[in-house]
Amino acid sequence: MRSKPNYFSLFISCVLLGTCCFSNPCYCFKPKNFTLSTIAARWSSAGATWYGSPNGAGSDGGACGYGNLVSQAPFSSLVTGIGPSLYNAGKECGACYQVKCTKHPACSGQPVRVVITDFCPGYPCTSGPAHFDLSGTAFGAMAVPGKEQKLRDAGVLEISYARSFEDGDGDLAGVALKQSSGRDEWWEMKQSSQYSGQILVAKNVIPAGWKPGATYRSLVKYL
User: Is the full-model pTM beyond 0.90?
Assistant: First the structure.
């Protein structure tokens, strides 16, 4: 007899579409009742470019399937595509990273949180160990105020990046779904990445009246 897994208890009729787009959810945005993780950032070097309009959200949704949500809160156009070395066949979709630059006169040196929403398969995203193809908004956010366009004119930029974790490590090792009523049967979904190995149950996590394409915030803490 298969043991009952302790994963998300969700309304399956509402979330099949949503979980395909948000298979690696991320709580990197900071409402007042979120707690910053004590996990120290480990910075690495990467290249960075930007695409789309200067103050836009990059592509219209990107390879991760978020659609027009990338321009809305909580993403607010602070999104990025990544090269193959980090994309990991889509398993990094929804992951949060901090990016910052210090080697250009227009760089502020302050980290900016971005969410992975797209894949960059060609040059220059394949030219180094890691590459971020940021939205114009995210790229400009790394600049000293008033020098956003000067930074965007820099071409390929050397940056530092680190995974961003709040309320714990923020990753899911697995997800299973079941109906809120009826048979106690769980439907397992494709495994994402695994870090801490913690297990969390969140019952009735999606609000009543949710529809595909709408956003909502779950205040479940990964601690």
Answer: no
Q: How far apart are CA 92 and CA 160, in angstroms?
A: 18
Q: Is the dihedral of CA 3, 27, 24, 208 positive or negative?
A: positive
In this structure, what DSSP letter does residue 9 have? B
Cα–Cα dist 135/5, whole Å: 38
The type of residue at 113 is R
Q: Identity (one letter) of the amino acid at 32?
A: K
Asked whether residue 31 is assigned to any structural domain, the reply reads: no
**Domain hosting residue 115, numbered range:** 44-163
- b/e string for 191-206 if b means 16 or more Cβ within 10 A? ebeeeeeeeeeeeeeb
- Side chain identity at 148, as an amino acid letter? E
Question: pLDDT per residue over 146-160, tens digit each?
Answer: 999 999 999 999 999
